[in-house]
Amino acid sequence: MEPILVPLLVGLAAYFFSGLRQINQWEVALRFTLGRFAGKRGPGLAWFAPGFQVLRRIDTRTRNRDLLRQMVITRDNVTTMVDAVVYFRVIDPEKATLAVENYEAAVKDRAKVVLRDVVGETRLDDLLAHREEVAAKVRSQVESVVAQWGLHVELIGLQDVQLPPQMQEVLAKVAVAERDRKYVVIKSQADVESAKNFAEAAGILGKAPGAMELRRFEALANLTQAGNTKVIFDLAKPYDDVRHQAVAMAEASSTSAIAADVSASRAAGAMLATNDETRKLAESAREAAAVTESLAVDEALRIENKARR
After folding, report:
1. Bridge partners, residue 72, by sequence
2. Which residues pair with 158 in a beta bridge?
3. What's domain 63-163's architecture?
4. Residue range 173-226, pLDDT digits in tens
5. Quick one: 153 exposed, middle or buried, by C-beta within 10 A (0-12, 13-18, 19+)?
6. Which of 163, 236, 273, 288 qualifies as a cystine partner to 167, CB 3.0-4.6 A?
7. Per-residue pLDDT reduced to its tens digit, 239-271
8. DSSP secondary structure string for all residues of 134-153
9. Max Cα separation, the chain?
10. Helices H / strands E in the chain, number of each
11. DSSP assigned state of 100
């Protein structure tokens, strides 16, 4: 008996130890007996009967899978290439195993289909400006389907949206034009504010001659720092005297100009009057010469007739 029992015990021990499995903290083990689901086992050591039972371990950690680049036509008929990534995890290992054959491939395929549908209903400007909203819409639609398989989609992100070269040039021109518009608007607003400040400063300096004098000294100090320009200031005269003198000179110049205009008008009138008198004298002389000539002709004819007689 002993020679038979020893191999039998050794075989039983080998059979027992061959059925031991270690289940990690992030795994759940599903036990199937003769093809029928017989329960779940948590982390630790688990034993199953080899030949009669099968253990299938399911990883419950979050997984990330890249979605291959998708060529999609947007709502405004622009062809784009969209790269995305999906993050998901198993929350019900029993459903993930029994309800779908390959849950990982099923999640990826479903995400691709929904991504094409959502991007196809979105305009290009909205797709570029609101990526997060588009990705959230894709995630919610994918989640509504894969939840039936015991899965949970945590995030779907749009990694890149590639455009044709012609469209990239158009968008670059639009961006440059928008920058130029903002520059012009900001510059015009700055000019308006600067003009208001200058007008206010001019009003204040006009009411306070002493302040204007200090401003003149400051301008002189700034000019002397350059060292390349020669400027002559009459420091003996305050700003008020200079201003009054300039005003007086301007008034004198305007008065002289008016007097000159009046004198020129009178001279022109006198010249016109002189020309009229000269013309009248010339006409009188011409008339006198004509009368004299006529009398001379008559006298000559009379003498000639007298001689013939």
Report:
1. 80
2. 84
3. 2-Layer Sandwich (3.30)
4. 888 888 888 988 898 888 888 888 877 777 776 676 666 666 666 766 676 665
5. buried
6. 163
7. 555 455 544 554 555 455 455 554 555 555 545
8. HHHHHHHHHHHHHGGGTEEE
9. 215
10. 8, 8
11. -
